[in-house]
């Protein structure tokens, strides 16, 4: 009975040691990851700061060129918006045609031509 008890105690201690070892390794890896992310964030901040400074300097040196670039970008955006609105208009028109059964010219779904009577609005009462 002592041999069995000592074996299960050894197994339990071994499992606990493995769990602790795994947790320690995970903790170390997490710390390394945090350091790597912090380093990447610092490098990104420096790169963005440098790009901002160089862009600001370029704008100050060449305001006319900058204005032309901005105007060109605005025109491109306006053109894209106009094209998108025309495309949406075409889709709406196509969906309206489909929803009315694809009929045009006043013909009904069974192929007969419908005539609409116009009212002049001058209706007089026959009874006095």
Textual characterization of the structure:
- With 128 residues, the chain is mostly helical.
- Helices cover 76% and strands 0% of the residues.
- It contains 2 helices and no strands.
- The longest helix is centred in the first third of the chain and has 60 residues.
- The termini are far apart.
Provide a compact summary of the structure.
By secondary structure, the chain is mostly helical. The protein has helices at residues 2-61, 63-99.
Query: Which class of secondary structure composition applies to the elements?
Result: mainly alpha
Q: What gap, in angstroms, lies between the N and C termini?
A: 123 Å
- Order of helices and strands, N to C? HH
What is the number of helical segments per DSSP (H or I, 4+ residues)? Answer: 2
Radius of gyration: 39 Å
Kindly state the mean pLDDT as a whole number? 76
Biggest sheet details = none
Approximate strand percentage: under 5%
Inertia-based shape = flat
Unreliable spans? 1-5
Number of strands: 0
The share of residues in helices is over 70%
């Amino acid at each position: 009975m002592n041999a069995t008890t000592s074996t299960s105690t050894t197994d339990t201690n071994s499992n606990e040691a493995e769990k602790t070892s795994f947790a320690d390794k995970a903790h170390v890896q997490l710390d390394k990851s945090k350091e790597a992310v912090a380093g990447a964030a610092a490098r990104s901040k420096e790169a963005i700061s440098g790009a901002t400074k160089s862009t600001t300097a370029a704008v100050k040196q060449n305001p006319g060129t900058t204005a032309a670039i901005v105007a060109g970008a605005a025109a491109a955006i306006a053109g894209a918006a106009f094209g998108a609105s025309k495309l949406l208009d075409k889709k709406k028109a196509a969906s309206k045609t489909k929803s009315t059964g694809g009929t045009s010219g006043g013909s009904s779904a069974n192929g007969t031509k419908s005539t609409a009577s116009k009212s002049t609005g001058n209706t007089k009462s026959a009874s006095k």
